[in-house]
Amino acid sequence: MMQIIEELRTLLPDAEATARAGARLAPGLAPGMLVTLSGELGAGKTTLVRGMLRRLGWAGTVKSPTYTLLEHYIVSSLYFYHFDLYRFNDPEEWDRAGFSEYLRPDTVCVLEWPERAAGWLPAGDIEMRFEHADTARVLTLDATSVAGSACLAAFAANP
Fold first, then answer.
1. How many structural domains does the chain have?
2. In a domain, 57, yes or no
3. 139: containing domain
4. For the chain, how far is it from start to end, CA to CA, in angstroms?
5. Which of 21, 32, 57, 75 has the maximal Cβ count within 10 Å?
6. Which of 64, 73, 107, 69 is nearest to 89 (CA)?
7. 95 — phi, psi (to 5°)?
8. From CA 120, how far away is CA 98, in angstroms rounded?
9. What CATH number did the domain enclosing 52 receive?
């Protein structure tokens, strides 16, 4: 029987630990998932995504989509879309950009700054928050679906 995990918290003392957290999450990602990342500028959101992609087998550059809004990667047969909505001034920009078309059963969408598209996004299967804790960060991961809970169980099983 699968353990149901709704929330996890982990301390990230540095960028390397943040990338490792992303790598721990990657095996639990499944097509159709939406993962959201909230936190201040420089909190480690893109570093976590880089860890995910490295674990999934992506060897190329992983850059922040702050200016492009979207970076896409194809790893194995998975379409992986990394969004950064920091530059959105209005939640309706999500709709006008046509980004909802990327939320499909054959994609994993990882989205930074989901609050910038409030009212236009479904709940993330996993919703993550980065918070400062002295010189480190605390990462809180909340699962809002069965797929999200399975991903957190895989994360917890691989410390």
1. 1
2. yes
3. 14-157
4. 20
5. 21
6. 69
7. -70, -45
8. 11
9. 3.40.50.300
Spatial strand order of the sheet with 34-38 comes to 7-12, 136-143, 126-133, 34-38, 107-112, 78-84, 70-75
* H-type alpha helices, 26-130: 45-56, 93-97
DSSP, res 73: E
Global pTM reads: 0.90
Which token pair is 42? Answer: 């420089």
Whole-number pLDDT of residue 53 = 95
Whether residue 26 lies inside any domain: the answer is yes
Question: Would you say residue 5 lies in a domain?
Answer: no
Q: pLDDT tens digits for 11-42?
A: 999 999 999 999 999 999 999 999 999 998 88
Structure tokens at 1: 């029987």
Annotate 105-156 with DSSP letters as a single string: TTEEEEEE-GGGGTTTSPPPSEEEEEEEETTEEEEEEEE-SHHHHHHHHHHH
Please check whether residue 105 lies inside any domain of the structure: yes
